[in-house]
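Tokens as discussed.
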């Protein structure tokens, strides 16, 4: 499901980012999307958004009311468009993807690293240097330990996934052998 919502949210995030760059309002849109995603992620409102019996117009009006009068005409249009297309639930993912695009545009790539064992500072520096060279951008790494990998590391940078874990290799082998 997470992949599906990302697929749905990506074109919206890219269009908003493109428009924000055209108008020189990237920071403003970042703040607007943060507000809208926070409102849409509220547990009570999220339950209403997921309820097909609640009219879309009511949801749109509720989000616009809670977000406040400070929203631009374009931001209000975005909420209306998402409501009309039954996509209000994607607001948090749109905001996340927008932030990712903003960071990438600034020449920084967010990278999540899962390691089977605790990585030393030298290992992290070495990996960050190799990833910076491969990705052509400054790398900000978030490193977590996950013993279920059995060995090796798994690297995620946006849509790029490098699975050098033993678990990943075993899974690939099992798939090839049709287990």
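Sequence:
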């Amino acid at each position: 499901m997470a992949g599906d919502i990302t697929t749905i949210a990506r074109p919206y995030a890219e269009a908003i980012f493109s428009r924000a760059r055209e108008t020189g309002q990237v920071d403003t849109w970042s703040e607007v999307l943060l507000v809208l995603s926070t409102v849409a992620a509220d547990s009570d409102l999220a339950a209403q958004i997921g309820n097909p019996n609640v009219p879309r117009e009511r949801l749109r009006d509720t989000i616009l009311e809670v977000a406040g009068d400070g929203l631009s005409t374009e931001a209000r249009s975005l909420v209306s468009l998402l409501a009309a297309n039954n996509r209000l639930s994607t607001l948090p993912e749109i905001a996340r993807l927008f932030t990712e695009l903003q960071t990438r545009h600034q020449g920084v790539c967010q990278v999540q690293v899962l390691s089977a064992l605790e990585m030393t500072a030298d290992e992290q520096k070495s990996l960050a240097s190799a990833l910076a060279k491969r990705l052509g951008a400054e790398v900000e790494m978030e490193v977590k330990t996950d013993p279920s990998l059995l060995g090796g590391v798994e690297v995620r940078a946006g849509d790029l996934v490098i699975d050098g874990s033993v678990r990943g290799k075993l899974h690939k082998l099992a798939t090839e052998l049709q287990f």
